[in-house]
Amino acid sequence: MLRKQSVCLVLIVIAVGFIADTVIHIYLRSTSSFKGTTIKYNYENDKWLKCLTYSCIANWYPRMQNKGKESNINECVTLIQQNLYENVTDKLLKNMMNKCFLTGIMHKTVLFNISFIEEFVQNFSCPSAKYLSTQRPLVALASYPGSGNTWTRELIEAITGTFTGSIYTDWNFKGSELCPARGNIYIVKTHIPSDKATSHVKCREIGVSTLNYTKAVLILRNPYQALLAEFNRQQSTSYSGNPGVGIAPKSDFKTSRWDKFVRVESETWKHMAIYWLSRFRKPVYVLVYDDLLNYTVIEMYKLTRFLNITATFKSLYCLSSKSVGNFKRSKPKWLTIEALFDSRLRKVVNDKIKSVLKVYELPQLYSYIL
Question: Mean of the pLDDT values across residues 82-103?
């Protein structure tokens, strides 16, 4: 709306200036005769008239633009304050994004700016995640390693206010300390194409070998990116205290180890995708990593609907809290797909993508083929 208003304003100013110039031009021509000789008015050389024309645009357009932006900011702040504890709906979210987009409060369709939220909402704070008070049916949070599972769990904990679990004893999530079958959590991280739970020591202690998932969320990431992330994690364990953010030495990508890794792990990526997309006979939500990255608020809201969770606007604001995104990896310039996947390895990965497409028609998969 702001853009349309701005464009209309520019057109109006230009039109008014043009009409004024034309009128002045005609007037000066009609009054510039002396002793029967008409002196042609030189518009191009009249600096005063040019200044008059362009100063209108230069002075008034920014003022009107700032006034429109200020109006949008005020409307955005009002909506944020009024809807803090309201349940998110399509209509309310769309209205808020229209008012807050490009204001600085929500400068992208990614996240709200937590600093602005804290400024405009008194005593605003995001609650710490807790264990479930009432048991819920289990949901698998499935992905090939390196697909953003850790970040997604952070976002889920922020928007739901509850811990997420795992079939592994992860080092960075409290909810992973307990076997998911205990009923303390309901969203369960898994990197395997099955409902096995034997990887968790606490599950083995109480004799739980499988988990009865009622739904699944598959985080699907471009396999080229996921393979790079997982290779870095595996190879950086001896180089970094936190393998989740470490980088493998550049020399490791020039060894047969990298070549073998791509061939074996691309097959694992394929099996993971095929199982959860076609063989798991219960509801599955495909959470595309790039969409989550580019449209975080929208994608998390859509995910809450799949999980049958009522999200408030406050929980959406908390997605951008400082506690979210602590496990992202900084990438050097040489760490690119183009540089590390030669034609042979590209064919290997492309073939796996095409195999998944044969069993599940997902448009995003086509864009992954190189």
Answer: 92
| Contacts of residue 193, Cβ cutoff 8 Å, sequence gap at least 6 | 142, 271, 272, 274, 275, 276, 279
Cβ contact 267:345 at 8 Å: no
Instruction: Return mean pLDDT, the chain.
Output: 82
pTM of the model: 0.78
Q: What angle separates helix 256-274 from helix 343-359, to the nearest 10 degrees? A: 10
Cβ atoms of residues 301 and 262 within 8 Å: no
208 domain-assigned = yes
Phi-psi region of 161 (alpha: psi -120 to 50; beta: other; left: phi over 0): left
Which of 91, 120, 149 is the last residue in one of the domains?
120
Residue 129 domain-assigned (yes or no): no
CATH number at residue 242: 3.40.50.300
Tens-place pLDDT, residues 306-354:
999 999 999 999 998 866 665 565 677 888 899 999 999 999 999 999 9
Nearest to 196 by CA among 151, 166, 238: 166
Q: Which two tokens stand for residue 344?
A: 């042979």
Instruction: Give CA angle at 23 (18, 24), nearest 5°.
Output: 100
- Range from 27-36, 57-66, 252-261, 313-322 carrying the lowest mean pLDDT: 27-36
3-class secondary-structure state, position 327 = coil
Q: What is the pLDDT of residues 1-20, one digit of tens each?
A: 545 555 565 566 566 555 55
Max distance between CA atoms of the chain, in angstroms, equals 114
At 251 the three-state DSSP class reads helix
Parent domain of 217: 139-368
Residues in the chain: 370
C-alpha 163, offset from chain centre: 21
What is the C-alpha to C-alpha distance for residues 224 and 193, in angstroms, rounded to an integer?
Answer: 20
Count of domains forming the chain? 2
